Amino acid sequence: MPDSIERALAAALTDACYFGQILIRKAGENGFVLCHRDDQGFDGLRLFQNPEDAIEISKFDDIENYRPLKTAPNLSRGWQLAVVDLSDLRRALDYFYPGRLAALVAWKENRLKTTPLRQTLDRQSGMYRIAAKISDAQINSLVGDFCRSDGGCLRAILWKRNESGIIPSTKLPPEKFEPAHDQALGPGPTTAAIAVIPLLCQEACNLLVAAARKVVKGE
Amino acid sequence: MENRQTTSALLIVGHGSTVNPDSSAPTLAYAAEIRRRHFFVDVACAFWKEEPSLRDARFFFDDSAIKEVYVVPNFISEGYFTQTVIPRELELGGRITNRGNGQTWKYCEPVGNDSEMTELLLKRAKEIAPEAPAGSTTLIIAAHGTDLNENSAGAAKREAEKIRKLDRYAAVLNLYMEEPPLITHWMKLTDTKNVVVVPFFISDGLHSYEDIPVMLGIAKKRSALNLSAAARDEIFRQNPYKIGNRSLYYASAIGTEPQLADIIIKQVARFDCGSEGSLPTS
Fold this sequence. Notes:
The structure holds two protein chains of two kinds.
Chain A: H1 4-12, E1 16-19, E2 22-27, E3 31-36, E4 46-48, H2 53-57, E5 79-83, H3 86-96, H4 100-108, H5 117-123, H6 136-146, E6 156-157, E7 195-197, E8 200-201, H7 206-217
Parallel strand pairs in A: 1-7, 4-5, 6-8
Antiparallel strand pairs in A: 1-2, 2-3, 3-5
Helix pairs in contact in A: 6-7
Chain B: E1 4-14, H1 25-37, E2 40-47, E3 68-73, H2 80-90, E4 96-98, E5 104-107, H3 116-128, E6 137-143, H4 154-166, E7 171-176, H5 186-189, E8 194-199, H6 206-216, H7 229-233, E9 241-243, E10 246-250, H8 260-275
Parallel strand pairs in B: 1-2, 1-3, 3-5, 6-7, 6-8, 8-10
Antiparallel strand pairs in B: 4-5, 9-10
């Protein structure tokens, strides 16, 4: 029986839709075919058939650099993954964009708790404790660069800078905080030609915390 | 063990890495293997330094059929991560946490605490040095150790004590990267012809590919993580290393043994056998 994530995924899927940089198309009665959205219609893609193949596909970018942030806009191209059913699609998407489907379902059900950046930083211990010393101006600059959709991360930011509800960076366009916007298209009022399943960010990731630490240490 | 297919989920927690592409691979593989066995309604992973994060995992297992979530740290020892980071990030209040949605999250012991780790260490040591007679061999369990948590070094110490009592090896030492007795001093601390070194880590990474080999004097610093997987693994394939009149055998990380999937499941069974209670303090 499909679980809540599979049910929500089924409801969000259209014949073709984007999830980050992935194009998902329905194929046959129950199956799905995935590829990089910029590879649509290309011949000669490497074919994969196992949801676990998504682990290796998403591990390195096109120049073989390790991708520690899976929602960075550097998913490799040249592959096509066919999965047999909704359950395998969910598994594959969980490898491509780990945790994002669960966040989406929680958001749709109004139970996604967001955490202000200051709270995330204040909670740290050990080597990351020092990250809390970052100034508001430094946060504005860091988040504006680190999280930007063109080159940083494709998630729509739902968290605030602090408990007063200030946006984390004035350097990011308003669309960056808008779940309905297709972040892979870049800023501006353009809309995607096909449906988009959003990648949501409810809390600053460990990579951003590590980057804040570096700012404080002047590295 | 009892089939938990109807009401229980499993969350395997790993460290992960922002620089090492191999760090999460064993944890993901164990999750896939356990998923195939259908012991649980759902099996997921979460990582400290990779995605999905520990914070993300709070939103997993939403299905109303799931009554219990077992959290098993795929860590080699009780320490800073198991006692500070994981409970804080997952918002666990102790060994048992009752969530607002009616779920009970059960925080199990790390895999490194399992008694089978001793067998895995002995197996790995024998595999890499089959021709070295144990009676003229020192077994070194090489672990991290840290001043962040006094228990970090404890698992390696405990394993060394257990193997010492078996009286198979001429000597058994627990040496550390960041606290005494240091791996760097292995030559002074051993006097046997053969020395077998097994890294007590949950996955191969910078520590096993490069840091420990440099400390042992069998490799130069070379940014191992920029090498291909085959080139990185070469360090485990050149045994024995001849250093003076010594033969040194170097193994890959103990946590890459496939039996770890069984040990993860065992932690769940152990929890239900009564190991619950408050978290050990750091």
